Fold these 4 entries.
Entry 1:
Amino acid sequence: MSSPLRIINGRVFDPANGVDGEVRDLCIRDGRIVDQLPAQARQLDAHGMVIMPGGVDIHCHIAGPKVNLARKMQPEDHRHDVVPSTAVTRSGTGGTVPSTFATGYRYATLGYTTAMDAAVPPLGARHTLEEFHDTPIIDKGFYIVLGNNIFLNQLLKEKRHEEFREAVAWWISATKAYAAKLVNPGGDEPWKGRRNSNVSDIDANIPEFDITPRQIINAFVHAVNDLGLPHPPHIHCNNLGHSGNFRTTIETMKAAEGRRLHMAHIQFHSYGGELGKNPKSKGPEIARYINENENITCDVGQVMFGKATVMTGDAPAAYVLRKITGNKWVNSDVECESGCGIVPFSYQEHIYTHAMQWAIGLELFLLSKDPWRIVLSTDHPNGGSFMSYPRLIKLLMDREFRKQEIARVNQKAIRNTVLLDDLEREYTLNEIAIITRAGPARALGLVNKGHLGSGADADITIYDELEDKEEMFSSPRYVLKDGELIIDDHEIRQDHEGRLLHVAPAYDEDIEQQIKPFFDKYYSIEFGNYAVGDEYLHRHQTVPTLGERQS
Amino acid sequence: MGDNIKIIENATCTFCGCVCDDMHLTVDLDEKKITKAKNACVLGRAWFAQHGIPDYPQATIGGKEASVEDAVEEAAQILAEAKFPIIYGLSDTTCEAQRHAVAIADLIHGCIDTTTSVCHGPSGIAFQGVGESTATLGEVKNRADFIMYWGGNPAESHPRHFTRYAVTTKGLYTPNGKKDRTVVLVDVRKTPSAPVADIFLSVKPGRDFELAWALRALVKGRKLDPSIEQVTGVSLATLEDLVDRMKNCRYGVLFFGMGLTMTRGRHFNSGAVLALTTDLNEFTHFVAKPVRGHGNVTGADNVLSWQTGYPFGVNFSRGFPRFNPGEFTTVDTLARGDADAALIIASDPASNFPRKAIEHLGAIPVIALDTKQTQTTNLARVAFITATYGINTAGTVYRMDDVPITLRKAFDSPYPTDEEILTAIRRRVQALCGGPAVPLRKVS
C-alpha cells in the first residue's frame, strides 16, 4: 500500500457530496478517502485539472462465454489494433471485443475504475470469474440472466412466489453475481422450442409456463426488491430493436408498480412506427415517462458510428440482424436458463435506421431531467466500443460539435426527431460526473463508489481541463485505483488487481432440495458441481444487501 | 484394499471432451489409487485405474535425475535464451496451468499453440469464417429430436455421449429418449456407432464437402442432378429425405468429428456443415457442435482467446499476439525448422507428429511436462513428471460445449502440479527476460 497522498489545487466534481468544481484538497490513505492527513504527506499538484471519482460502467459486455465467442470469431477485429506488452503490462489485442488484459487497461486509461458485465448465464459464471481474474485494475461484477430460467418460470406457473424469491437469492449467491438480469423475458421457449419464433407482446401467454412476460417482470421486481439487493432487476425488454416497441417499454416500466427497476440500453427500446417498417423516434415519450417516475433508472445504450459487435442474450434479436447483414452469426443455447446471439455489425451515418438510433440516444440524454437516473452507456460493444465514451461526452457537452455531427448524418432520420427543435442543452462537467460516475454508483447501490467523500474508495480520475472534451476525457493525466497511482502522466505505471463485487443474499436452504431434483433431470452437470466455489473469488468484496446495511 | 478408503462424489473424468462430472470414486488412500469409478465408461475406468503414483524421478535433465529447482532453472535458461521458442500441448491440464503457459509465451515472445491445431483447428478457422449456431449438451438432452453425427465414432471415442447427453437420454421435451429422436450417422464406413443410427449415410472418402454442399443446395430449394450419387456416394432420394427431416424437426443437432476436419477439405468441411446449420435456421432451430477430444482442449481454446484474442497458433515475437495457422502452428514451426526450443505440456507430439516435425523436435532443447514417461519426455532435455489433473489436482476444465467444471482432487500426489512448475518457470523467466513485471497472482 502506497503512502498517504494529498491531491491539491484541482477542481473537484463530486456531485454526490454537492461539490461542483470547487478547488479542494483530497486526502487518501489505505486506499480510501479520508478527512485529513498530516501536513507532511506526499502531494500531487492537480492545478488546472478536473478531479472526478473513477468512472462506473453500469452496462457492458466484457467477460464470459459470449464475449469470448465474439473474440474468437473475429480475428479481423484484433489484428489492426494490437496492445504490446510493456514493463508493467501484459500484451493483448483490442478492437470492439478486446482481450481481458486490454479491457482492464483500456477502461483505466479512460478513467473508468468499475465495470459491470450485464449478461452472464449462470452456467457461465465460473468462466466469467476466470476472465475477470485476468482483467486488471478495474473493479467488476456481473449480472446473471434469470428471466428465461425454466425452473423459476415453473415456480411462477404454480404461483409459488416465496419459493421463487428464495430461488432467485440462491442463484445469485451460488454464482457470485451482483444482480439479476432479465433478457427478453419469456422469449427463449419460442426461440429454442418453436422454430425460432419469439414473444412480441408483454401480455402474451407463454404456453409452456402459462404465464406472460409481464408476470415474469413483476415477479422479479418484487423478489429482488424484497431481497434488498443493492441493484434492482436490470431488464432488457421484449421487442428490442423493433419499430413500435416503445409501448412494450412503457408497459415494462408500469409492471414495476412503482418499485425500483433499471432499464438497460433504453435507446434500443424507444422506437415508434410500424413493425417491419422504418422506426420513428419515441425518445421524447420515453424520456417523459422516466422523468415522471422516480423508481426507474436507465442506461442509454447510445449508438456510435463505426464498427460494433452485437452480442446479446436476446438470441432472436441477433438473428434478425444476421438476416439483415448476412454476416457470420453465433447462436448459443444454454440449457434451462439462457442463450445468446452474436453478429459483427457496423453503424453508418447515411443509413436511416442507424442515424435514427444515434439521434434517439441523444434525445434521451438531452430530454432527461434527472441526470441521476440516466447513465451513459453504449451497451459496449453493441452500440459501439466503450472507447467511444469520450466522443459521446463531447456530443453532450459541445452544442456546436453536436450540430456539425447532426448535419453529417441521414437528414430524413433527423427530421423525424426533435434534435433540431431547440435542443440546445449542453451537459456541464458536474452532470457528466453524475451520468458516468455518481449516478451509476447510486443505481448499483455501491456506497463507496462514485463519490469522493470520507470513506469512499480512492478510485479517482484527474483530467487536464481542455476545451476539446473528447480529448480531455480520452486521456486522463492521473488515475488512482484504491489509492494507488496507476496512470501517471497519461501512462500506465503499475499493474493492479481490482476486486470482484458480488452479493450474497441469505436464502432458505430448503430451496436447494427443491432445485436439485430439477437439476438431476434436466441439467447436464451435477447439482453438486454447479455452485461456484470461493476459490474463484480472488480479491473481492461482498456488497451487503439493504437489509444487511440496516442491521 | 486398505482401510483408508475415501469416497468422492461428483468427481469429473477428464479423459475425453465429454468431461462427465458424475463420477463416484472409491479411493484407497494407502495404496494411492482409485479402486472403483462408478458411472465411468470403459475409457474412464481405464483412466482412473491407470493413474496411480508412478515411480519416476520428479525431474530429469539430460535423462539424469535432477532436483525440481535445478530443472526449473535449466528450463528457464533455455526459454530465455531461445530466439524462436514454442509452447505446445495444454489440452490435458487445467485452465489455471494454461494461463501461466500463455504468460510465459508473452514473456519470451514465443509461439503458443495447442492440440487444437491438429484436431479441430479447422473448425476454429471455419468458426471465424461463418460463425456457429450451437448449444450446451443439456439442450441436446432436453430438446433435440434430430441428431446427426458426421465424421465421428462416439461409441468408441466418447462412449457416454449417446447415453448421457444425446441419443438415449431423456429430457424435458424428449421424455421417451431415443424414441423421440431420429439419429443419423455419416461416415465412410459402418463404425461401431452405426447401430445407434436410424439412418446411415456412407459418404465416399474425401467427399464430405460435396455432400454438405449438396445438402445446402437442397435446403435452399435448388434442383440437384441425380449424378450427385456418383460424387458423394449417397443417392439424391436419400439426400432429399434427409433434408426433409432436417427442415421439419423441432430441434436439430449436428455433431461433427475429426473425420470431417482432418480429411480433404479441412476447414472448408467444417465451414460447410456450420453454414448448413445456419441455413437450416430459416426453417427450424438447428445447432452444431464439434465433438472435442481431450479433457480440456476446449479450455485451452478459451484461455488463449480471452488472453490473446485468438484460439490457437499465436505468436508474440513482435511483443503482441498474432494469429496465423499454418505459420505459427506447431507442426509447421517444427517441420520448417523455425523453432529453437520447445516447452511441451501434457502432450506427446514425439509419438504422433509428422516425421519431419519429430526430427526437428529431437534436434532442439525440449522441456516436457507430463504425468508419465512418454516419447516426448524421453527426448526432452528437461522433463518433469507432474500430478494428474482431476485425480491429484483441482482446477477448472471446459467441457466440449464450453461449460466450465471444477475438478475434485481424489488423492495427493508427491509430484508437483503443472501449475506449480509453470509458475516457477514463469517467475524465473520473468527475472531473466526482464519482461512485463506483472505481479504473479496465485491462480488457484
Entry 2:
Amino acid sequence: MIHGILAEFRNPLDLMHAAEKVRDAGYNKFDCHSPFPVHGMDQAMGLKRSKLGFVIAFFAILGGLIGFALQSWTHSIAYPLTISGKPLFAWQAYIIIIFALFVLFGAISAVLGMLHFNRLPRFHHPVFYSENFKKATDDGFFISIESEDSKFSDTETKSFLESIGGDNVELLEGDDE
Amino acid sequence: MSEALHPQQFDPEKAPLITGGQTFGSITEKISSIVEKRAPKEWWLLFAMALSGLFLLLGTLGWLIWEGTGIWGLNNPVGWGWAIVNFVFWVGIGHAGTLISAVLFLFRQKWRTSINRFAEAMTIFAVICALLFPGIHVGRIWLLYYFFPVPNQMGMWPNFRSPLLWDFFAVGTYFTVSLLFWYTGLIPDLATLRDRAKKRIRKMTFGVLSLGWRGGNRQWQHYELAYLVLAGLSTPLVLSVHSVVSTDFATSLVPGWHTTIFPPYFVAGAVFSGFGMVMTLVIIARKFYGLHHIITAQHLDKMAKIMLVTSSMVGYAYSMEFFIAWYSGNVYEQFAFINRGFGNYAWAYWIMISCNVILPQFFWFKKIRYNTKLLFIASILVNVGMWFERFVITVSSLSRDFLPSSWAYYSPTIFDILTFVGSFGLFFTFFLLFLRFLPMVSMTEVKGILPEANQHHETH
C-alpha cells in the first residue's frame, strides 16, 4: 500500500521554493520537513495562522478565574477567619495567586494544545518508512505528499517532485492497515 | 587565552556567534555524540563526588526528620536560618535560566541559543533544591499537606492573604512552567537522538520521549507559537517569582525587611547569581566536551556584561537601603542598617559587598571578560557573595530585633552546613545526568541561527 511520496531538497531555500511550487500545483496534503523551523515557510506552503493562541488565552483566563474563585470562596464562605485584621474579601492580596494560576493554566494549555494540533504523540507515520528520512532531524530537507491528497498519483506526483528539483524521490510503502 | 577572539578586531555586529565553520551536520554530530559516546573520566569523577553529596543530604535529612529542627542552629529570635537562606539562594540561581530562555528569546538575542538548554536545566535542578528547604524546615514533614488548599477533616484552610502561600504558588508554578518550557525545547532534539540511535532500547526510549516528532512545517507552525507563548508567560513569571519571595520578608515589620525596594532588588540579585552559576557550569562543560566553537568567548563576554549590569543594580539597592533608612527618620531602621555594616554580622556584610559590588566592576575591562580563568573564579565568588546577601538579610535583621533583651547571635550547626553541602550534591547529580543523557545545547536552535539557514529568499 502506498502512503505517499517523499522527496529530498538540498537546503532550506530550495525547500521553500519547492513548497511554493507544490502549493501552486494545487496539493494541500503535503508537509515540508526540516531540522529547524524555516522562516517564511508558512506563507510558502499557504498555511493559515495557528489557532493555538485562542486556546491558550481561554485556558489562561480560566486559570485566573479559578484562582479568584478559590481564594474569595475560601475566605468569604468556606472558612471566614479574620487574621491580623485583614478584610475577609481582600482582593488585592489575591492578585498574585490569580496571576500564578493564569500563567500555569496558560503554559499547560500551550504545550497540550500544541501536541493536540500536531496530532502528537503519534509514534507511527508513513514518512518513517524511509531510511533516508532519518536526515530530517539532522541536515535533510524533505517534502512529503500524502496519497490521500486528491491530486495524488503515483507516477505524476513523482515526476512532478523530480521536476522541481527533488532528489531521492521515493514512494512510501508499508504493508499495514 | 588561545580561544579568545582578539578584542581589538571584535565587532559584535559582524562576528559570527558560532565559529569553526560549522554546518547543520557538524552541529548534530558534535552535540549528539556527547551523549552517545562513553562518558569521559572527569564525568565519572564529578558524578562520584556529586553522588556522595546526595547521600550526605539524604543522611542529614533522615536525621532531621527523626530528631526535628532542633539539630539546626536556630534560636530565639533567629527562627529563620540557613533553610530560608538556602531556599532564596537556590530559587535565585534558577532565574538566569528563565531569563536566558524566555526574556532573551523575546528580545531576539541569538546568542542565547548556545546556552539556553543548559541554563534551563540549571533552573529546574536549582528549583528542586530550593523546594527541598521549605519542605524540610516545617519540622513535621508528614504534615506538609497543610500547605495545599485541600479539604481535610480538620476543616482547615490555608490563608491566601499570607505571602508564604503566595510563595508556594509562585515557586510551584515556576517549576512546572520551567519544566514544560524545557521539555518543549527538547522535543526536536530528542527526535534527532531517536533517528541516530542504533540500539533498539535507545530507539524506543527517545522514540517515546520525542512523541513521534517529524519536523514537518505543519508541526513547527504550532510548535513555534507555543514556544513563543511559553516565553511570553515565563517572562512576567520570572519577574514575579523572586518578587513574591521577597514579600516573605517585605510584608513583615522587622527592621531591614520592611521596605518596598525588595522585589526589584531581589530579582536583580537573582539574575546576577544565576548568571554566575551558568558561567561556572558553562566554563566547565565547554572545556570537558570541547564546545569552544558553539559556546564561544563571545558568549562568555555577553554573560559577564549582564552580570556587570545586575551587580550594579544590586549595588544601587544596597546603597539605597542605607539612604532610605536615614531619610525615613525611623530609628529602628537606621539601627538595623548601621548594625548590618558595623555590627555583629559585619564580616558577612563586607563579604557580600566585596563579591557582589566590587568584584564585578572588573568586568568593565574587555581583557578580563575574555579571560576564562578569571571569569571562572569570579563566577564562583559571585555566588558566594549572593549566598551571603541572603544570610545578611535574614540573620542580621532577626538577631537584632526591636527588643534588646531578646537579641542573640546565630551560628549554624554541622547539620546546617552538611545539608547545604548536600544540596549541591543533589544539584550536580541531576546536572551531570543531564549532561550525560540529554543534548546539552539546543541543536535545533543553533542550526536555525547558522548563516546557511537564513539565505535570503528573493521576492517573487
Entry 3:
Amino acid sequence: MKNIAQIVCEHPFFHGLDGEFCDLVCGCARNVRFNPGDYLFHEGGDADYLYLIRYGQVTLEIAVPGKPSVRFQTLHDGDLVGVSWVLPPYHWAYDARAITLTRAIAMDARCLRKKCDDDPVLGYDVLKRVLPILTSRLHATQMQILDVYGAPEQPE
Amino acid sequence: MDNVDDSSVITREGLQCLLDALAERGYTVVGPTVRDEAIVYEELARIEALPAGWTDEQDGGHYRLKRRSDEALFGYAVGPHSWKRFLHPPKVSLWQATRHENELRFVPARDEPPRYAFIGVRACELAAIGIQDRVLMGDEYADPHYRSRREEAFLVALNCSEAGGTCFCDSMATGPDVKEGYDLVLTELLDDDNHLFLIRSGSEEGAEILAELPREPATETHQAAATAVVEKTRSQMGRSMPQIAIPALLMDNLEHPRWDEVADRCLSCSNCTMVCPTCFCTTVEDTSDLEGVTAERSRRWDSCFTSDFSYIHGGSVRNSTRSRYRQWMTHKLATWVDQFGTSGCVGCGRCITWCPVGIDITEEVRAIHDDVSSRDKE
Amino acid sequence: MSGDLMIPEPVRVLRRQQELATTWTLELESGPAGHRPFLPGQFNMLYIFGVGEVPISLSGDAGQTETLSHTVRAVGPVSNKLAALKPMDTVGLRGPFGVGWPMTAGEGADLLIVAGGLGLAPLRPAIYHVLRHRERYGRVILLYGTRSPDDILYAGQLEEWSKRPDVEVHITVDHAGGDWPGKIGVVPSLVPALDFDPEDAVAMVCGPEIMMRFTVNALRDAGVEDESIYLSMERNMKCALGHCGHCQFGSTFVCKDGPVLSFDRVRGLLSLKEF
C-alpha cells in the first residue's frame, strides 16, 4: 500500500515536485472519498480544501433558479478541483459534486498557503501549477460562450 | 512554324482583306470600335468601324476619347472591354432541367458558340488570355464553355503604338511587344507618307491567311520602324509596378494599416474585377418556371467585392471593404502565383482607369513597400 | 475526367433517417451507373430542382458503392429542402469532388480523429476506412465534442466504437443536464491528457472553424507537427472545380485543393480576421 507522500507526489498536479517540497505539502494532505451525488463544496463556501482527483468524476455546476443546475465542466483522474483557494477572499465560485465514486487527495488550503507563504520558491512552484489550469479553463469558457456548435443565426 | 519568317507589310486595304478572309473562313470578327464615348470590342465587318483617328486619355478614374492628329487605326490603349467577355462571357446558360412527377432530367444548354477572330489583341491581353487558359482549362477540370470558345479563336495580335496613362505592362513583363500565342501579329506603321501594317504569322492558319493577302515583303526599314514603335510605347508607360518581391511583401503585411486606408476610398463597386482581363470569378443562378416543371441554371460573372461572394451559413466571411480589397489584391498579385505560376496582373491598367475613385494598384503596392522599407531602416 | 462537370445527374433518395432535431442523413442511389466511388473526406454537390445547389460531405462507408450517404442540417433554403426529401424523390448530384483525409499518409501512425458537432459526418468515412483496415494504423483515438448530449451525432455508432478494444473514444459536451454521465468541457482540453507520441501522430480535425482553431492550438502545444494536422475547411462553393473563385483561401481553392488541407498550408491565415 502506498503512503500518502507517494500518492501526493505521484499525482499529476504535483508531478516533478522537488522531494523536500513534496514532504512539506504532504503534511497538508489526507485521502478522501465521495459517493455519487456528494458535494465537494458549494458556491460561496470557504475554500478551505482543494482536491486532487485520483479516481472518479466530478462536475462543476452553477445553480439556476427554477431550473436544473447548469453543469459546465467535468473533472477526472489527475485533475485539480477548485482554484479559489489560491487568492483571497478564498470563497468557492461554483458547486462541485461527485457523479461517480470519487477518490481524492484533500489538501488543507490554509496549511498549503502557509507553507507557500513561508517559502516563496515553493509558492511560486505551486502557482505555476495552478495558472495553466486557470488559463485553460478560461479558454474553454470562451469557447463554450461562443456556442460554436449552435445553429447558425442566418440561413445559408 | 517559328522558323518561317513571313513578315510582310499590308496597307489599310490589306487589313480589310484580312477581315474578309477571316469572315470567309467562318469567323465572327471582333475588334475595337467607338461606342458610348469609349473604345469597346464589337463585331466588325469593315475597317471603317475601327476607331480611326481616335485616342484615349486615361488616368485614375478618368477615361476620355480624344482626336488624334493622324488617322491611326490602333492609336489608343485598352478600353473597358477585354476579350474575356467573348471567351468567358458575362452570362452563360449551363443547363435546363425538367421535372415530371419524380423524374428529373438535365439537358445541357446547347449554345454553339461562334468561332471568334479577335483583331488587335494587345500583348497584355494575350498574357491575360494565357492566364485564363491556365485557370479555366489548365487541369482535368477544363471548363467546356471556355474551351470551346478558346480553342476555336483566331488571334490577330497587335504591338502597341500608344501606351495609356494607366499602362504598366512593361513592369509586369507582359508587353508592350507581343511575344507568343497569336495567329497573326500586326504593328501599325504610320508616317506622313505611308499607313502600313507590318504583319507576321505565329501559327499555320495565320500563315495560310497571310499568304492570301495582298502584301509586300517587309524590309529592314519596316522592321526597324516597328521596333521603334514598340520602344517608344515602352517609354510612355503611365504607371509602373515596383520591381520587388510582391507576393512576400503582401502576405507578410496582411494587417498593414494601408488596407484600412484603401478601404476608406474603395466603394466595393467591383468595377475593377469586371474590367480586369484575368478576373474569372462566377456565380450561378437558379431559376424555375411558375409551374415548377422547368428550371435553368446559368453562370454569370461575380466579384469578390460583393457581400454574397464569401457567404457560408451564418454570414459572409469577408464583411468589410478592407478584407475584400485585401482579398482581391493579395489574390491578384500574391497567391495567384502559388496557384497558377504567374502573377494574376498583366499591367493593362483597366482597374485604375475604371475605378470610380481612382485607386491605383501600383500605388497601393508602393505604399506598403515604402512604409515597410522605411521602418526596416529605422 | 471528361464531359461537362457542371451538369448534375439525377439520383433517387433511397432512405432518410433523422439524426438530430434538425439533422437528417439521406441515402442516395449511386447514380444510374450504380457506381460512384469516393474517398473519405470528399463531398458532392446536391441540387434541389429550381432552388439551388450546396456542397455536402459524404458521410457513409466508401467501402461500399451501392449508396451515397449525406448528413444534412436544415439551415437554409436548399438544405431545408434536402432534409425534407422522401424516398423515391430525385435530386441532382455532381461529384465526388475534392481531396480527402490522409488515409495513406496516416498509415503506420497513431490517428487522432477530432470532430466537433456535425464535423463528425465528413470524418465518418475515415473512421469506417480505419476500422476496415485496422491493422494499418497504430492507436486510434476519436475525440468528439458537441453542444449537449442531445446533439451527439451517430450516438449509437459512437457507443459501438467505444466498446471496441482497439478504438479510444472520448466524448465531451459543452453543457449537460443532471442525467449526463459523461464529460463536460471542450474538445481541445481533452488533448493534453491523451498521453500519445506527437511525433508519430496524424490528426484529422473537422468541426466549426473556431473549434478547429482551438484544437489545432492544443495539438501543436502537444507537439504534433503542422504537416501532420489535417483540417476540413468550409467556404462558399459554386462550382467545385476551382473555376468560380468563391472558395479561394490563400494559395488554395478549398473545393479542389481541399476541403482537407494540412495545417501548414493555412497557417497564419486561419486565425486572420475576415481572410
Entry 4:
Amino acid sequence: MKGTAMLRSSRVRPYAITGGRTIARMPLLLETLVSVPDYDLMVHQMLVAESRDIYALCRSVQSIAEISAALDMPLGVVRVLVSDLADDGRLRIHPTAVHAGVPEHMLLERVLRGLQTIKH
Amino acid sequence: MSRKILIVGAGQSGLQLAHGLLQHGYQVTLMSARTADEIRGGRVMSTQAMFDAALQHERDLGLNFWEDEGPHFDGLGFSLAGPDGSLALDWAGRLNAFAQSVDQRVKMAGWLEALEQRGGRVIIHGVTVSDLDRLVNRYDLTIVAAGKGELVQLFGRDPSHSPYAAPQRALSVVYVHGLGPRPERGDLATVNFNLVPGVGELFIMPALTTTGPCDILFFEGIPDGPLDRFTGIRSPEEHLRLTLELMERYVPWEYARAHNVELTDWGGTLAGRYAPVVRNPVGPLPSGGAVLGMADVVVANDPITGQGSNNAAKCAAIYLERILAHGDRPYDQAFMQEVFGHFWDYAQYPTTWTNAMLQPPPPHIVQVLGAAAGHQQIADRFANGFNDPRDFFSWFMDPGKAASYLESVVGAAV
C-alpha cells in the first residue's frame, strides 16, 4: 500500500498555465534581512509615515523581526510595507540564510535579539 | 490611480475575488497564512464538490485550470438504510451539467501562484486583529475571507439566522485511491449520498488530489452517535481503518467496493465539528475602521449539503459584481451591508435548506425520496437542486408544494 502511494506522488500539475513553474517571491520570514541600498531624502519625504520609518531604519541592514520590535509595529504591517517598498524598488530583500543555504551565526543572534524585544 | 483592495485569506472566495478584481484593474494585496507549497503539502481542508453554477464562475475568470484533468461526476446517487441495516432505497438523479471536486490543496496553491504571476501582491502572514487595525486605512476596502482563524471573532453572530448553538454533525474525511464503482450506477459517475437514519450520512465522491484522481469518503455523524468516533485519532492509517469499519457496519453496499482502498497521502484525512452560524458582515476594528466579511466568515453552514465551496464561489462572484458596480464611491459600512445583502438574497436559500437537512426528515421529504425511486424526473430534480438550492423552495421544502408536485408527476405517469 505504501509503495504504490509513493509512486503516485506529484502526478498533478500545480497549474496548467506555466507547467507549475513559479516566480513567487520568497516569503518574508522573521529572519529575512532587508536594507535600503540607495537612501534618498526625496523618497523619504514622499513616503507616508509608517513606510518612512521603515525606510529610514533600513539604512542599516535589519531583519523583519528587528523592524517590528524597533518601530513597535505588528509583524503583518511590517511584511506588507516592506513588500510594498521592495516592489517599488526602494528597499532590497536579501536572500536569507535558509534559502541561500548558508548558515550564519550573526543572523541567528540578531533574530533572537529581535524576538526578545518584539511586542504583541 | 486604481483602487487598492486588501483581501485576507487564500481560500475559494478570497482567491477567486482577488483574481476577479485584478483582471478589472484593481490593485490587489492578498494575505495568506501559508505559502503555496505549504498549502500543497499540508492537510486536506474540505470535500469541495462544486456544481455547474459555481464552476462557471471559475470558468468566467479563466481559473478552471484542472477542469479536464480532474474526474467529473454527472449524477447524485441516494441510498437509504432501512431499520434492519439493509438497503431500503436506492436511486440516482442525473445532473444537467457535470460537477467536480478539485482538492483545495491543489486549487488554492495554484491560484495563489497564479495571482502573484498575474500581478497581485501576495503577503505570507497569519493576520491578527492588530495587523488589520493598522492596515485598514491604507486600503480603499479590506475584505476578510479567512473563515478559520481568529479574525472571524470580529464578526458578531446573528442569532436570528443561526438556529443552532452547537455542532450538529461530527465530520470525518478520508481521501483514498483504489475505490471501485457502484455497479448499480452503470456508466453514471455520481456523488453518493447515503442516509442512515439516527446515525448520520456518508458521502462519497470522485475528486482530483495532489496524487491524481481519487475518491473522498466523508462521514457526517450525529454527535455522540456511533459515527462520532474520530476525535483524538492520531494516525491517518487509523482514521482510514475506522472509516472502513464503520462503512462495513452501516453502509455495507459502499464497503463492498472499498476492499482495495489506500490513503492518498499522509495529509488526506480530516476530522472536526463546528456549529453552523450566520454572522454580521461588518467587522468593527478597535481604532474605528471596518472590514467586510465574505463566504464562510459570515455564512458557515454544515457541509451536509456540500454547499460550502459553492457558496464561496457565488459569494465571490456577487462581491466582484457589486464592487465593480460601485465605481469610485467610497466603500463605507452602508456599502458593506448592501454587498452582503446581495449575497444573502441568495445564501438564505442554501442556508435554510442545509439547516433543515440536519433534522430527521419530515414525512413529506420521506415521501419525495421514496417517489424518486420510481420517477426519474423527481430524482433528477433533487440532484439539480444541489446546483441551485433555490429550486427546493418551489417543491421540496414545503409539505403542500411537495404534495402537489408529487401529484403532478405521479398522476401524469399513471
